[in-house]
Amino acid sequence: xxxxxxxxxxxxxxxNLNEALALINDIQKxxxxxxxxxxxxxxxxxxxxxxxxxxxxxxxxxxxxxxxxEHIKGAFTGEVSAEMLKSVGCIYVLVGHSERRTFFKESxxxxxxxxxxxxxxxxxVIFCFGExxxxxxxxxxxxxxxKQIENVLKNFSExxxxxxxxxxxxxxxxxxxxxxxxxxxxxxHAYIRKIMSELxxxxxxxxxxxxxxxxxxxxxxxELFSCADVDGGLIGGASLKAADFCKIIxxx
Length: 252
Ligand code: 13P
Description:
By secondary structure, the chain is α/β, with parallel strands linked by helices. It has helices at 17-31, 48-54, 82-87, 98-103, 108-120, 133-137, 141-153, 158-161, 182-199, 202-207, 221-225, 242-249; strands at 5-10, 37-42, 61-65, 92-95, 124-129, 165-168, 210-213, 232-235. The model has no long low-confidence stretch (mean pLDDT 97).
């Protein structure tokens, strides 16, 4: 048995409630025949419960949250806890997205706390990381990714990591229209597997789904997904158009 095939849509701060529900409906219709692919959407917080409720009959289509607080509960105005996400039916949570790291200055220490809270509430973590343009230009992309993975994941056990997915999202490819080439993606994904094997075990590393994210779209998904170590995509912009997202789902 090979690894799972996964297509995840990170909607970021887009859609209103009606648009979100219409998008889900259209994705459902357009992706019905692809039951071998796990579909995950990450709508904004206010639409999570409605999203979960509209997918109750689905067995390969799940809802996740784009973030969770590093705090458990209490006087943290505006924050959303892992327990809250679990209580509305979220299965997944993204941790470490580059937009959270950059705009909200999330540190490795915060990411560790977020993951601990997610795990306590039985949420499955999709841990995101990736190098910036200047790091790639300086030839430090492998070193950067290694540190991002090690600093956070070394705090968790192999048993805990069994339920993780990883998402390699080079910052220079996010929202820029400049996708990593299949060679660049494959090379980094194979390297990530090597790091995971050294940190944990070969079994964990071989079983772990690793998604690619960064200007992945209906045109380039097929080539990216055909790489041996690319198990799917974490899609931003193209996940907001049902037809494009379904075409990506159909790309395996
Ligand atoms: P784009 O697909 O818009 O480049 O975004 C990727 C991303 O950040 C997914 O989390």
